[in-house]
Structures are given as structure tokens and as C-alpha cells.
């Protein structure tokens, strides 16, 4: 797998950009813990069906830089903008976000509406308030101790459970996770994101997104998602009424990987090549 690296203002960003295709580039933004490999089954599929596609590792994940900074929504939105500018992608793009990636895509769309044509949100994170457990994990020393004691194992197990009964898929995702977990700054990035990042209390963000005019998009959600619960789709649709809704029966939190054939059909219908 060929990776490229963009020297951005906060650190290097690892990306893959397949330019061969027509229409607006589709940019894939992953979530809280999984690197860009979680888009494998959508990224190559859409490229084979005529789209130019771009995906990248967020700061602190995968092969991108892991700076010792606060991992805020602003940091991630700036990373996306700088990457597009670095690649000289100045026109409209289609954004596809997964979980935390949805809040990044939403904020980018609000700040740069002229640069976004279509928006795909898959199981968007950001609603609700931070739990006591999450607050505990962000405390100095305690957070690091809890992560090393139980958090690391729970994180990997949780991701593998969402992949479902797919031995090859589980093996591949596990290998990618083990690669990033080996870097202690990955732990720092996760804890910092839990403390400062776009994971909670973002009703206001989606409300602002819903006020944008002349936008179109799709909301995709697995009915068996136990990470960002499926029932939250009602709140998202209330906040962003211009989204078309596609529930995926039996889909988990990474429904785009677990039930990629179904999700890819939705993506094709939602992102027509012009």
C-alpha cells in the first residue's frame, strides 16, 4: 500500500489520493481511534466506479504525526483544510465522515460551505454530554493508568467486535491497530481528544449545519450500533433536516466496513458522478 506524506503546519499527514476519476473528489475522514484503513472497502470501490478519492490519518492516528498539542475540533478542521490546499484541491469536494469524523466534516462545511458539495455522515458522534468515566480518563496520571490497565484492551476488542464475523477483516484491522498502539503518543492523542476533541456537546454544531442552504447529504447508521446509538438518528435528522436517511439493518458502528456492499450502493446513489 503506497502512502504519501504532507508536511502541514502541525505535523506530517499520511494520505492516499487516487486522482484517476471524474467529478468532485471524495474525501474520507475516519473517527476517534481507527486510522484510515477503516475506509478500505469504500475507498477503492468508489475509485473503481469513477471517483477520485482521498483519505488520510488524523493527527495522532495511524501514520500521521502525533504532536503534543490539544486535540481540538479546530486542529482537525485545520488539518483537513491544509491537506486540501497542499494537494491544490480548490474546488468543491464531497466529504464522508465516520463517527468523530462527522463532526470534523460538519465543522469544515460550516466554515467553508463553498468547498463542499455533498456530505455523508455515518453514525455521527458529538451528541450528549461527557460521562463521568470519560472525565475520569482525561485526568492526569489516572487517565494514563486506566488506559494501560484496561483501556487499550477494551479499545481493540471494541473495534474488532464491530467488524463482525470476518476473520480476514479482523486480522487486517488488528494489525493496523497494533501498529499505532505501539507509539506511546497514540495514547496521548486519544486522551487529549477525549478531553478537548469533538466528541460531546456538539448539538450546536449540527444545528448550524442544518441552517446551511443549498446543501445535500446522507445520514447512514447501523441499527445495531452500540457505540453511537442508532436512536440518536432522530436528533441528527431534526438538527439537519436536509439529510436523507439510510438505516442499515444489523449494521454496527463501522457499518461502512462491516456491511460495505450495502453502504457502497448508498454511496453510489448519493454521490453521482457529474
- Looking at this structure, what is the CATH superfamily? Alpha/Beta hydrolase fold, catalytic domain
Envelope shape = globular
Based on CA atoms alone, the radius of gyration comes out at: 17 Å
Count of β-strands: 8
Strand content: 15-25%
Tell me the domain tally: 1
CATH class: Alpha Beta
Strand order of the largest sheet: 1-2-4-3-5-6-7-8
Based on secondary structure, the structural category is alpha/beta
The average pLDDT is 91
Structure write-up:
This protein is of the alpha/beta class and 274 residues long. Helices cover 44% and strands 19% of the residues. The protein has a single domain, classed as Rossmann fold, CATH 3.40.50. The chain has eleven helices and eight strands. The protein has an eight-stranded mixed β-sheet. Strand 5, helix 3 and strand 6 form a beta-alpha-beta unit. Helix 1 crosses helix 11, helix 2 packs across helix 3 and helix 3 packs across helix 8. The model has no long low-confidence stretch (mean pLDDT 91).
Main features:
eight-stranded mixed sheet, Rossmann fold, alpha/beta, 19% strand, 274 residues
Amino acid at each position: 500500500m503506497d502512502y504519501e506524506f504532507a508536511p502541514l503546519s502541525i505535523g506530517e499527514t499520511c494520505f492516499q489520493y487516487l486522482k484517476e476519476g471524474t467529478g468532485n473528489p471524495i474525501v474520507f475522514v475516519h473517527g476517534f481511534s481507527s486510522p484510515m484503513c477503516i475506509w478500505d472497502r469504500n475507498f477503492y470501490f468508489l475509485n473503481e466506479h469513477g471517483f477520485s478519492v482521498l483519505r488520510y490519518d488524523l493527527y495522532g492516528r495511524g501514520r500521521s504525526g502525533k504532536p503534543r498539542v490539544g486535540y481540538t475540533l479546530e486542529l482537525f478542521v485545520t488539518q483537513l483544510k491544509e491537506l486540501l490546499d497542499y494537494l491544490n484541491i480548490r474546488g468543491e469536494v464531497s466529504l464522508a465522515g465516520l463517527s468523530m469524523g462527522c463532526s470534523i466534516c460538519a465543522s469544515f462545511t460550516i466554515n467553508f460551505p463553498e468547498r463542499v458539495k455533498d456530505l455523508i455522515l455515518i453514525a455521527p458522534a458529538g451528541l450528549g454530554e461527557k460521562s463521568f468515566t470519560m472525565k475520569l480518563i482525561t485526568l492526569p496520571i489516572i487517565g494514563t493508568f486506566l488506559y494501560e490497565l484496561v483501556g487499550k484492551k477494551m479499545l481493540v476488542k471494541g473495534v474488532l467486535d464491530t467488524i463482525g464475523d470476518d476473520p480476514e477483516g479482523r486480522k487486517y484491522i488488528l494489525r493496523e491497530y497494533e501498529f499505532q498502539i505501539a507509539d506511546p503518543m497514540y495514547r496521548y492523542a486519544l486522551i487529549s481528544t477525549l478531553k478537548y476533541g469533538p466528541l460531546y456537546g456538539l448539538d450546536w454544531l449540527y444545528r448550524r449545519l442544518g441552517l446551511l442552504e443549498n446543501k445535500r447529504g446522507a445520514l447512514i447508521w447501523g441499527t445495531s450500533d452500540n457505540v453511537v446509538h442508532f436512536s440518536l438518528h432522530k436528533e441528527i435528522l431534526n438538527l439537519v433536516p436536509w439529510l436523507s436517511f439510510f438505516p442499515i439493518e444489523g449494521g454496527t458502528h463501522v457499518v461502512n466496513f462491516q456491511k460495505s456492499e450495502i453502504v457502497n450502493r448508498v454511496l453510489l446513489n448519493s454521490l453521482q458522478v457529474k
